[in-house]
Design a protein that fits this description.
Elements: E1 4-9, H1 16-35, E2 42-48, E3 54-55, E4 61-62, E5 66-67, E6 76-79, H2 90-99, E7 105-109, H3 112-118, E8 126-127, H4 134-140, E9 145-146, E10 152-155, E11 158-161, H5 166-179, H6 181-190, H7 206-209, H8 216-227, H9 235-241, H10 246-257, H11 261-279, H12 284-291, H13 296-306, H14 311-318
Helix pairs in contact: 1-5, 1-6, 5-6, 9-10, 11-12, 11-13, 11-14
């Protein structure tokens, strides 16, 4: 089989990890095949305007292998993000408009979605980007259906991913699609990526969301929810803890946290269950009880909605210990920072 050409675009202000993350995944896949006596699956080409060195958003200088104007036709086109995507780049936009549609797969990492949108490649599609720029992408391009939550989203031949390290998850998914799960897992191990996350998984955890509460009482309440997922977390019970009426509590919580109490609680419980599935050999009924998810069926529905796979599939992929058992003295509970 002839190697698929992976064309990675670079430009001034590009985010370096958006480039090197996917590049290392595709290169690692070639190394995996070489170790099994097979030829490479990918021909990796890095191209930029004029073929001249570019300065990344962090100040690193990258030297592309070729001029974008003479770059080979791509099987997979990778458009990274970075500060350079925030201003108009007529040359790059024009190139994408002419050449991107010829690629079998068009992908973007982080704010690279803005470049694809300017080139008219995302109209009518469901896409994602870094959570901090999702609202701006939707506002600037109302014809695009922006979903700020998933790590990556596939809509036809276009695959868009969230910020920075999500480009690694995206590239691993493409490697699995092209040459198999064994290869993708081998690359993930070499990159020390413990969790090869499914695309539907949320961009950030419930713990990271605690920073969004404006007032101390609600931040403390969020910490309580995270530490006690199996407790009585009804609106009535939680509102009493912050001395509010249930109606006012729900309104204030939603405004300050950016999501409803019910949705935050569901995310916290799923996250607890995820951690238990990764680190223990506890049966599903026990995990349901510890995480507050109720029955195995309700846990399955919550996982499919928030993670994109069932609990058993998640455990099969991501349990960190071959025996499935958590090392002794390792707590399942969230550690205090």
């Amino acid at each position: 089989m002839r190697p698929r050409t992976v064309l990675i675009i670079v430009f001034d202000g590009v985010q370096s990890l958006d480039v090197t993350g996917p590049l290392e995944v595709f290169s690692g896949a070639n190394s995996h095949l070489a170790g099994h006596g097979s030829g490479p699956a990918y021909r990796i080409v890095v191209a930029g305007p004029g073929g001249t060195p570019v300065r990344t958003s962090s100040g690193l200088t990258l030297v592309p292998g070729t001029d974008l104007r003479v770059a080979p036709a791509a099987h997979t086109l990778v458009v990274p993000g970075g500060e350079g995507t925030r201003s108009e780049n007529e040359e790059l936009t024009a190139w994408l408009r002419r050449h991107a549609p010829t690629a079998r797969r068009i992908t973007s990492v982080c704010t690279g979605a803005f470049l694809l949108a300017r080139a008219g490649l995302l109209a009518g599609r469901r896409v994602t980007t870094h959570w901090a720029y999702a609202e701006a992408l939707q506002r600037q391009f109302p014809g695009v259906n922006v979903d700020p939550e998933p790590i990556y989203v596939r809509d036809g031949c276009v695959v868009t991913s969230a910020g920075v390290t999500a480009g690694i998850d995206l590239a691993l998914a493409l490697v699995e699609e092209d040459i198999g799960r064994e290869a993708a897992l081998d690359v993930a191990r070499h990159l020390v990526v413990f969790l090869r996350r499914p695309g539907g998984q949320a961009q950030f955890s419930a713990q990271l969301s605690t920073q969004f509460a404006e007032s101390d009482p609600l931040r403390d309440l969020q910490a309580f929810i995270l530490d006690h997922p199996s407790a009585n977390l009804s609106v009535q019970s939680l509102s009493r803890r912050v001395a509010m009426s249930p109606r006012n509590f729900a309104r204030v919580f939603t405004r300050q946290v950016g999501t409803t109490p019910a949705r935050f609680i569901s995310s916290a419980r799923v996250e607890t269950a995820r951690r238990l599935l990764e680190e223990t050999s506890d049966d599903l009924e026990s995990i349901c009880a510890q995480s507050g998810l109720g029955t195995t069926e309700s846990m399955r529905r919550a996982f499919l909605k928030l993670v994109g796979v069932s609990p058993s599939q998640y455990r099969e992929r991501f349990n960190r210990h071959p025996s499935g058992a958590r090392p002794r003295n390792t707590p399942a509970k969230r550690e205090a920072s």
